[in-house]
Amino acid sequence: MPVYKDEKTNKWFVSCWYTDWQGVKKKKVKRGFETKRDAQDWERQFRLQDSANPEMTMNSFMEMYKNDVSPKLKENTWLTKENIIIKHILPTFGNMRLSDITAKNVIDWQNQIRKEGYSDTYLRTIHNQLSTMFNHAVRYYGLKQNPAFVAGGMGAKRRGEIVFWTKEEYLKFAEVMMDKPIYYYAFEILYWCGIRVGELLALTPSDFNYEKKTLRIDESYQRLKGRDVITSPKTEKSKRIISVPDFLCDEISDYLKSLYKPNDDDRIFCELSKSSLNKTLKIGAKAAGVKELHVHCLRHSHVSLLIDMGFTALAIGERMGHETQEITLTYAHLFPSRQVEMATKLNEIRKDDE
To answer: Is the residue at 47 inside a domain?
Structure first.
């Protein structure tokens, strides 16, 4: 095996040749192994990766999966997937060979994860990530079957109860926030426009059209590994133009005038973060005497308000930037029942025909 000892560092290294996907012969060198066995194990896994062999360990496959998948995804999307893999999947399966992992192994893993007390929705997310990795291995790396599919899923797709504020609750909260202008205006936009937190934090003065009374949503802000990252919104339909009520246009106009000569492309709420919004929301809710909720629940609150005002799921979904109407219909239990009205109308139609 091409494993050698560096006499200067007293550590082992691997030096071997391989052929890349374009048929070009290349040399691979990996240094810093404490023992000869560690170096040999690494070289063996590298060979298995190079030959797309399902006998590679899950740790080795993770490197291949990352190289295959991450370039196709937004950075924040990949980091979310990577966090799930590192936290929940590799501790159990990392040192196991892909071809050795059975449905029984997956069931045992599921039972252990369930003990952690995660929500049904998150359990489903964790399992789906494992299953997605196995599907990738089946499609591209010669794995015969997906043991996570055979084991069956865990968790549930349906979310728990949707938490929101009524208009009266929000107005109590907003009154408390008036002595914190930057937070007050941020919460005003979140509640009366229903946009996502990332969309709020990406807003610039140029996104507001005071003549047409509209707000343009075409970017989203993320804080990733200590960096400010601006991306496109969550989905293609998230790019949208929202009509803004007159009072909110006036409020935002006054607020921007109070700032020190902001440029059109400056972020309006650059001083805020998701965590600071959540912290201030919690403090303000307590002071206002209303129930505590997460900042994303202001988006739920906006949907609830629109439903209460009588707007259809289609119209609401367009304003919220939902990818499909099915997403809007997750709020179906908030829509008032119109069964009696339907029966009355049917009765009237029947009488007209008599």
So the answer is: yes
Question: How many folded domains does the chain comprise?
Answer: 2
Chain centre to alpha carbon of residue 82: 12
In angstroms, the Cα distances linking 124 to 70, 84, 115, 157, 329 are 21, 12, 14, 7, 20
**Can you spell out the DSSP letters for 86-106?**
IIIIHHHHTTSBGGG--HHHH
Domain match, 188 and 306 both: yes
Specify whether 138 is located in the same domain as 180: no
In a domain, 262, yes or no: yes
Look up the pTM and report it: 0.67
- Partnered with residue 317 across adjacent β-strands are none
Q: Residue 315: which residues within 8 A CB-CB, separation 6 or more?
A: 306
131 and 17 assigned to the same domain: yes
Q: CA separation (Å) from 249 to 185, 188, 207, 255, 315?
A: 11, 11, 12, 10, 21
Structure tokens belonging to residue 125: 């997310």
Q: Which domain holds residue 118?
A: 3-151
In a domain, 45, yes or no: yes
Give per-residue pLDDT as tens, 77-116. 899 999 999 999 999 999 998 989 999 999 999 999 999 9
Summarize pLDDT for 217-231 with one digit per residue, the tens: 999 998 887 888 888
